[in-house]
Design brief:
This protein is mostly helical. It contains six helices and four strands, in the order αααββββααα. The strands form two sheets. Strands 1-2 form a two-stranded antiparallel ribbon. Strands 3-4 form a two-stranded antiparallel ribbon. The two termini are about 20 Å apart.
Length: about 270
Amino acid sequence: MLSVNTNMGAMAALQYLNQTQVQLQTTQAHINSGLKVSTPQDNGAVYAIAQNMRGNVAGYQAVSDSINRGISTVDVGISAGQSISDLLNELKSKALAGADASLDTASRNALNADFTALRDQITTIVQNATFNGTNMVDGSTANFQALASADGTRKITVDGQTLKLSGVIVTIKSTSTISTAAKASTMIATINTSIQNVNAALAKMASGVKKFTIQATFVSKLVDTLNAGIGNLVDADMAVESAKLQSLQVRQQLGIQALSIANAAPGITLSLFR
């Protein structure tokens, strides 16, 4: 049937061409964004899953930041503890020398001056062992807690240690001296106790840093795994999309030609009236 009012061939050709155009636009969007699912319209279920996983990744990035702050905070405390341990060894040496009853007054006074200077240095180190407002060795921080889960419900805790003079760990008093042989002899035992206590406190803080480090490694691997999972869900396969693009471009050209031929069909009607 030839009709100048209704051209079914052109209508069909136009429908197929429009379908090809939509598919071509979708493929081009995949290539431009690198994603096969970039909006809920692409695939609502997959998009929702990917968004939830992205939320977890963001949460674990905050966890990683928290753990890194914890590592730095405790590391500063450990550095202070190591310095105090070294000072205690020096103080022990001074006390041993001061225990010699044969020392003359000038030598004893010099040893005592060195002893008190080293003793006071412990206080300076403790006061300066602060990172981001937190001091793990002056008694102001009972413990440091770092996030361990993306929902914030689980945490890793490292206990603080009090390394101040006249404390439970460093038992040397802030007024201690070795001005006499008797005081120096007594001080040796006190210093030995302090050395053992400080080294035990350092071991506890080092164990805490290890917990942080292990968790930080796990979180890093977990984030990588989550990102890979998100990619598997939403990333476009560029090789497939490239092949599809070429195929659709060919179909587009053929559709245009088919529509052109269909639109030319009513022109045949005119020849009937010549």
